[in-house]
């Protein structure tokens, strides 16, 4: 049996279908007893508590993980030891995993896979620059925080540490493991993370693993020997360019994969651009340099584009063709270097702002998230003291507010547990406002600002509360509106009952009880609602 406490943390319940909880290890939901804050805790059971050297290495690892601060990476807050157990405490991401979303709703559209893959590639770029390789990416370890994907379970020493879960490998573990890691578990590298990223994209596009197998042992063999099918042959609407990216990421030879996660990001952006412009494969292949590698015959492509005839036209043969002269060759080299530099050179601060403004103006959650991940965060990361930094922070706040409200509405609609006290209080204030009682709502919103102002974890809901306060104040509301609102709703419920709309009337009375049961100033009206419900129950009996 696993322990129920780890120092200041109380373990509540296992997280995820493959948490390993049956072995007393794995991922657990935990609450800090004093702070009342929830965490995801990864628990390791170590015989005799581990050697002093192993403990020092584990402490060095959690210090490294604490430094990873990127929007698409779940934060690690540190770790500790408790008897024969060790643990790491991570940010708790409540959203569904990629595996759960695909299982429930089927494969993603290819556009959504682009929206998923770009922030994941950027997160891997950041981690790899910090010399941290994930080493175990799979669909269960990509969780959706609102609209954005977040990678969980980052480790910096997964291959050699003794601090790891004791559960046996599953089919999913092997399905996204690079062939070289199957053959040598210590071969975890940047390239093995890229292979796993390709597997995640394949899964999101098709709804199945890139490699087939009915047992973990069979899957391990097939990863080394079986070639994944081409995505475009299974998902007809998937652009050939996106299929080519996945195919390259899933190459058996690490040297045949992309050079880095940054190169993957460039390729994905090129996919988006070519899809938007309607560029065909033949035109792409004949056009020269590109971060995308598409398997096609360039001569055949030129013939399809009508360029072969131009190649066959006779040209005069001067004694010394100008293209063989040194000045011309030097010019070509300089032009090629310029083109490569232009393609690879990152956009400047002004250009990033212009792109962000265009996406934000277009509206829609997908465009807002793209603006945040691809433009606003890069402005802050590369130009923290630039003239657009404050603007970028403000826009990030606006996007995160929209994401938080959307995620809250989804959780309420599905009856899911709210993630924090600030979120619960905001939902409560929102109910008063929707009920038509802005006076009580504004008091609730102001309470959120008072309680959580300055708390970075709850900053988004503080910003939302401030926005709602400003909007309500602009309407010129008066205090003491609750009594008038309740009377109005009681009359509405009585009218509904006269029309035979019993369910709608009952909803109003229940809402009055839920919202105002503890409001001493309106108890006579609350008792009327309770009396109506009691009369309804007697009629039903």
TrEMBL record:
SUPFAM superfamilies referenced in this protein's UniProt entry, alphabetically: Protein kinase-like (PK-like)
Keyword Lipid metabolism carried by entry: no
Record field: transmembrane: 326-345
GO MF term (any one): protein serine/threonine kinase activity
CDD domains: STKc_PknB_like (cd14014)
Keywords: ATP-binding, Kinase, Membrane, Nucleotide-binding, Transferase, Transmembrane, Transmembrane helix
Record bears the keyword Disulfide bond: no
Domain Protein kinase, first and last residues per copy: 17-269
Gene3D superfamilies membership: Phosphorylase Kinase, domain 1, Transferase(Phosphotransferase) domain 1
Location of region: Disordered: 1-21
EC numbers for this chain: 2.7.11.1
PANTHER family: MITOGEN-ACTIVATED PROTEIN KINASE KINASE KINASE 20-RELATED, SERINE_THREONINE-PROTEIN KINASE YBDM-RELATED
Protein name as annotated: Serine/threonine-protein kinase PrkC
Biological classification of the source: Bacteria, Pseudomonadati, Planctomycetota, Planctomycetia, Pirellulales
């Amino acid at each position: 049996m696993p322990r129920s406490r780890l120092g200041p943390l109380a373990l509540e319940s296992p997280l995820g279908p493959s948490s390993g909880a049956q072995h007393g290890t794995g991922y657990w939901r935990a609450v800090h007893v004093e702070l009342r804050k929830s965490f995801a805790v990864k628990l390791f059971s170590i015989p005799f508590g581990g050697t002093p050297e192993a403990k020092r290495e584990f402490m060095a690892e959690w210090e490294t993980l604490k430094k990873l601060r990127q929007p698409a990476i779940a934060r690690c807050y540190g770790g500790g030891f408790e008897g024969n157990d060790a643990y790491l405490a991570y940010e708790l991401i409540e959203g569904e995993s990629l595996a759960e979303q695909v299982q429930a709703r089927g494969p993603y559209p290819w556009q959504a896979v682009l929206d998923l893959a770009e922030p994941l590639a950027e997160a891997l770029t950041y981690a790899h620059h910090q010399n941290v390789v994930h080493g175990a990416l799979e669909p269960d370890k990509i969780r959706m925080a609102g609209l954005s994907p977040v990678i969980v379970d980052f480790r910096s020493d997964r291959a050699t540490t003794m601090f790891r879960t004791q559960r046996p490998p599953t089919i999913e573990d092997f399905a996204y493991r690079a062939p070289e890691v199957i053959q040598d578990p210590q071969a975890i590298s940047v390239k093995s993370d890229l292979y796993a990223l390709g597997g995640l994209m394949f899964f999101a596009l098709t709804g199945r693993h890139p490699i087939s197998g009915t047992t973990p042992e069979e899957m391990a063999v097939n990863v080394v020997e079986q070639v994944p099918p081409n995505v475009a042959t299974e998902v007809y609407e998937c652009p050939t360019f996106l299929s080519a990216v996945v195919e390259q990421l899933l190459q058996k030879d690490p040297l045949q994969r992309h050079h880095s996660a940054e190169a993957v990001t460039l390729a994905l952006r090129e996919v988006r651009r070519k899809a938007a412009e309607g560029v065909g494969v033949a035109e792409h292949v004949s056009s020269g340099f590109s971060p995308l590698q598409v398997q096609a015959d360039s001569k055949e492509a030129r013939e399809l584009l009508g360029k072969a005839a131009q190649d066959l036209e006779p040209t005069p043969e001067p004694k010394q063709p100008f293209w063989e002269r040194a000045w011309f060759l030097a010019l070509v080299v300089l032009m090629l270097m310029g083109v490569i530099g232009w393609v690879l050179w990152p956009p400047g601060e002004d250009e990033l702002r212009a792109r962000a403004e265009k996406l934000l103006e277009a509206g829609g959650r997908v465009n807002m998230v793209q603006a945040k991940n691809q433009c606003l965060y890069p402005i802050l990361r590369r130009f923290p003291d630039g003239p657009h930094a404050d603007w970028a922070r403000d826009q990030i706040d606006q996007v995160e507010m929209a994401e938080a409200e959307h995620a809250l509405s989804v959780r309420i609609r599905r009856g899911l547990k709210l993630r924090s006290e600030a979120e619960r209080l905001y939902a409560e204030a929102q109910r008063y406002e929707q009920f038509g009682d802005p006076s009580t709502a504004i008091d609730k919103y102001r309470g959120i600002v008072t309680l959580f102002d300055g708390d970075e974890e709850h900053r988004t809901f503080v910003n939302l509360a401030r926005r709602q306060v400003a909007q309500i104040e602009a309407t010129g509301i008066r205090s003491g509106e609750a009594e008038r609102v309740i009377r109005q709703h009681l009359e509405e419920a009585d009218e509904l009952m006269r029309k035979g709309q019993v369910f709608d009337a009952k909803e109003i009375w229940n809402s009055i009880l839920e919202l105002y049961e503890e409001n001493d100033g309106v108890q006579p009206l609350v008792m009327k609602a309770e009396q109506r419900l009691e009369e309804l129950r007697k009629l039903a009996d």
